[in-house]
UniProtKB/TrEMBL annotation:
Taxonomy, superkingdom: Bacteria
Organism: Anoxybacteroides rupiense
Main location: cytoplasm
Gene3D superfamilies the record matches: 3.30.420.40
InterPro entries in UniProt: Aliphatic_acid_kin_short-chain, Aliphatic_acid_kinase_CS, ATPase_NBD, Butyrate_kin
A GO molecular function held by the record: butyrate kinase activity
Identification of the protein by name: Probable butyrate kinase
Alphabetical keyword list: ATP-binding, Cytoplasm, Kinase, Nucleotide-binding, Transferase
Recorded family membership: Belongs to the acetokinase family.
Name of the gene this protein is made from: buk
């Protein structure tokens, strides 16, 4: 029997680019990273104001490629800073659109994913979905306790790619994702280290503006008392401090670039500071992996390294040398987010999985008074 063919448009808005793809079932027939001029992006007051510009750019690109959007079965976008929800494929609804427009959990380009998917899909009378947004929250209650009763730990991470890569590795191992324990490390602009316990990410660092290893452009965890002193030194505005933590933290703060390839060239040219800082980033990633292995009580089937930094052989070796005693280290460089979006939509279109309704009956344990 011939399987039904679904054509899906997927949209992944990033801070400097919009990645789009068209898939016939699992097969990619077109993918493009549309790079946006920094001046153009910065000319908009807020993320949401970029909506019309990004939509037109997507539609023009599809038109230039000769892709007839009337043949689409669904549109699927990367989900943004919504209310905390469990992983899965969600149908875009009014409540979700409202939260994305407001930036319920903050501002990140991924907030545009669901909105763009909805606008394009509704004109064609087809469904719009998001899959595994950055706010997927499957934290165990114990992981929410920060140690400071006014602040609760939050789950903000590369859920889409972490879950997609974990599913892929499980398949390679001939098992189901839900049968295995993994530590998945996404190393891109931000770095997140997730403890995946039988299909649930029970602990992970907030990779956006919270904690964890420093990354190409984010500071990660910093000494709290010193940060408080800096905030009240009278030298900086709030926005300046936030920018130094996210965007201008990490490699950017120390070395003036978020490009690890450039850092490797600096090291090759004998730059000792670059060598120390790059090694420190690997060291902090390894420490976070060690912490995740304790979360999983040492029962770790594999450590998976993914994201752009996983292309750096020396960087990967430094991490692996420190953690390979815990479990095998499997490297899947880059990210597969477009494919993951298409597969998430397909699972629902084929009836293999039920679409979830936002915000669902998410019941995290409140630890705040
Ligand atoms: N071949 C490579 N070797 C080392 N680092 C790389 C390589 N390719 C990309 N990177 C680095 O990966 C980082 C970006 O990762 P990526 O996953 O594309 O980020 P994001 O999607 O979060 O913007 C950058 O620091 C980039 O320099
Ligand atoms: C950690 C939330 C998602 C995120 O930071 O994505 P980027 O690294 O692509 O900015």
């Amino acid at each position: 029997m011939q399987t039904k063919e679904f054509r899906i448009l997927v949209i992944n808005p990033g801070s400097t680019s919009t990645k789009i793809g068209v898939f016939d079932n699992e097969r990619s027939i077109f993918e493009k990273t549309i790079r946006h001029d920094t001046d153009v992006i910065q000319s908009y007051k807020s993320i949401i104001d970029q909506y019309e510009f990004r939509k037109q750019t997507i539609l023009e690109t599809l038109d230039q490629e000769g892709i007839n959007i009337s043949k689409l079965s669904a549109v699927c976008g990367r989900g943004g800073l919504l209310r905390p929800i469990e992983g899965g494929t969600y149908r875009v609804n009014e409540q979700m659109l409202d939260d994305l427009r407001k930036g319920y959990g903050g501002q990140h380009a991924s907030n545009l994913g669901g909105i763009l998917a909805h606008e394009i899909a509704s004109a064609l009378n087809i469904p719009a979905f998001i899959v595994d947004p950055v706010v997927v929250d499957e934290l165990d209650p114990i992981a929410r306790i920060s140690g400071f009763s006014l602040i609760e730990r939050r789950s903000i991470f590369h859920a889409l790619n972490q879950k997609a890569v974990a599913r892929r590795v499980a398949k390679e191992l001939g098992k189901k994702y839900e049968e295995l324990n993994f530590i998945v490390v996404h190393m891109g602009g931000g770095i997140t280290v997730g403890a995946h316990k039988q299909g649930r990410v029970v602990d992970v660092n907030n990779g956006l503006d919270g904690e964890g290893p420093f990354s190409p452009e984010r500071a990660g965890t910093v000494p709290a008392g010193d940060l408080v002193s800096l905030c009240f030194s009278g030298e900086y505005y709030r926005e300046e401090i936030l920018k130094m933590l996210v965007g201008q933290g990490g490699l950017v703060g120390y070395l003036g670039t978020n490009d690890a390839v450039k850092v490797e060239k600096m090291i090759e040219a004998g730059d000792e500071k670059a060598k120390l800082v790059y090694s420190a980033m690997a060291y902090q990633v390894a420490k976070e992996i060690g912490a995740a292995s304790a979360v999983l009580a040492g029962k770790v089937d594999a450590i998976i390294l993914t994201g752009g930094l996983a292309y750096g052989k020396g960087f990967v070796k430094e991490i692996a040398d420190r953690v390979k005693w815990i479990a095998d280290v499997i490297v899947h460089p880059g990210e597969n987010e477009l494919q993951a979006l298409a597969e998430g939509a397909l699972r629902v279109l084929r009836g293999e999985e039920k679409e979830k309704v936002y915000p669902g009956n998410f019941s995290k344990v409140e630890v705040l008074q």
